[in-house]
Specification:
With about 140 residues, this protein is an alpha+beta fold. A two-stranded antiparallel ribbon has the order 1-2. The two termini are about 35 Å apart.
Length: about 140
């Protein structure tokens, strides 16, 4: 506690682990971050891709679950996910009750302090942080 985290081990310029190569990494980045493509659309795209390949070859990801599992296995950013459930417990109107009032919702989050600590220790962010205080109007 209260000590800086160890720096990550050095990586070669062509190391895209846990992705198999740069193309798979760039596709994941495009689908997940840039396009924010929905799971159903990712599955459809991977099926079309698979159908276009010769027998025995596979698309970069089998489906959206495979894509998300590879993204989740990235070693940097290993702050654990936490979860809790909430449910509306207030007064309910007479008659038909809206579905959101009876459903239970899972809330997933990461400890913000641990996330910030990890970001500050990540050399990839070193040249992109401005530590000077600012007043925003």
């Amino acid at each position: 506690p209260n000590t800086a985290p160890l720096p990550p081990p050095p990586r070669s310029g062509d190391d895209y682990a846990p992705f198999t190569n740069r193309s798979q990494f760039e596709l994941a980045d495009f689908l997940y971050r840039e396009e924010q493509m929905g799971n159903r659309k990712i599955d459809e795209l991977m099926q079309i891709w698979s159908d276009s390949l010769p027998e025995g070859q596979s698309p970069p990801f089998a489906n959206h679950e495979h894509l998300l599992n590879v993204i989740d296995s990235i070693p940097l950013g290993d702050v654990a996910w936490k979860t809790f459930s909430i449910k509306y417990e207030g007064e309910r109107p007479p008659g038909e009750v809206p579905s959101w009032m009876v459903k239970e919702y899972d809330i997933w989050y990461r400890d913000p302090r641990a996330v910030i600590r990890q970001q500050l220790s990540n050399p990839d962010f070193a040249k992109h942080m401005d530590y000077a205080p600012k007043r925003v109007y």
